Each structure stands twice: as C-alpha cells, then as structure tokens.
UniProtKB/TrEMBL annotation:
One of its GO terms (cellular component) is P-body. This is RNB domain-containing protein. One of its GO terms (molecular function) is 3'-5'-RNA exonuclease activity. PANTHER family: DIS3-LIKE EXONUCLEASE 2, RIBONUCLEASE. PROSITE patterns: RIBONUCLEASE_II. GO terms for biological process: miRNA catabolic process; mRNA catabolic process. InterPro entries: NA-bd_OB-fold, RNase_II/R, RNase_II/R_CS, RNR_Ribonuclease. It comes from the Eukaryota. Residues 22-101 form the RNB domain.
Length: 167
C-alpha cells in the first residue's frame, strides 16, 4: 500500500486503496473525456503490479486461516481453477475439491506432498510471468530504439480505443 500511496502523490489523484473500494474509486476518479479510460488503465496496472501474486498452497499446511484471504476480492476464502484440461495445477485443485466435497474418494497424498506440488506450480508460474515481462521489456526497448511511428497502435483491448500515429 505504501507504493500505491507514492503513485497517488506523484499523479495527484485521490483514491481509496482499501481493497473493496479501490476499483470503485478508480471508476469514479476520472471524467468522460477521451483519455479517461487510458488513465484508468495505467493506474489499474500501477496498483496491480505491486500486489502479491496469487499462490497455490495446501490448506492443511497453513495454520492461520487469515492467509486464505483474497485481498482484491475482499473474501475470506478463495480457490481458483479453470478447466482441468489446461494446467496441472487445475487438475490437482479439481481432484482435491472433488474429494473434499465427497464426490470422489479421498486423495492418498500427505499434505506435505501436496504443498511441494503447489510450490512447484508457483515456481513455474513465476518463471512464466518473468519471461513474459522480460519479453515485453525487450520489445519495448527495441521499439523505442528504432524510433518507429506506428499507425493505429492499440491503447488496450477495448473496443473504441483511440487510434492515431504514435512516435
């Protein structure tokens, strides 16, 4: 939150950074001019980057349930998974959730083994994120060095984004 305060001071923007109110505050801060969405997108990115990345963990290892909390959603318990055909972590979460609900038989793994799998998935996710960030930085550095002018450069993945020539 300290880093967020520094960003607010630099930009002279008044925002409430309590997790439940942050998005509402961002939505209410900017007007309806053509650059409002771009400013909001930049601030959202600036506030999101320093937040702790979501991590997989075995609930049987953590003693304090406060550590299960999801800051951005402001909920006390949270689990995340997608289609189990995509990632190994999702397959594990589906199996554990199914067993905990009594839909399938209990998993025959010690909680320490599940925690090791969670840590491995976290390591892979962090490595992937780091490679993506480095790739973005490299592309930007090459782009700036070339000094190219790009026509219709997208400002974001939203329909109706401003278009034009950007040096």
């Amino acid at each position: 939150q300290k880093r967020g305060s520094e960003h607010r001071r630099t930009l002279l923007v008044s925002l409430n950074t309590v997790s439940l109110l942050l998005q509402k505050s961002l939505n209410e801060t900017f007007g309806a001019d053509k650059y409002s969405e771009a400013r909001k997108e930049v601030l959202t990115n600036m506030f999101s980057r320093p937040m702790q990345m979501a991590l997989y963990f075995c609930t049987g290892i953590l003693k304090d349930e406060i550590l299960f909390r999801h800051y951005a959603l402001n909920v006390p318990f949270y689990t995340h998974f997608t289609s189990p055909i995509r990632r190994y972590a999702d397959v594990v979460v589906h199996r554990l959730l199914s067993a905990s609900l009594g839909i399938s038989s209990p998993i025959k793994m010690e909680k320490e083994a599940i925690q090791r799998q969670a840590e491995h998935c976290n390591d892979r996710k962090m490595a992937s994120k780091r490679v993506q960030e480095l790739s973005t930085d490299l592309f930007f550095a090459v782009f700036v060095r070339v000094g190219a002018v790009v026509s219709n450069f997208p400002m974001g993945a939203q329909s109706g984004a401003e278009k034009g020539d950007y040096p």
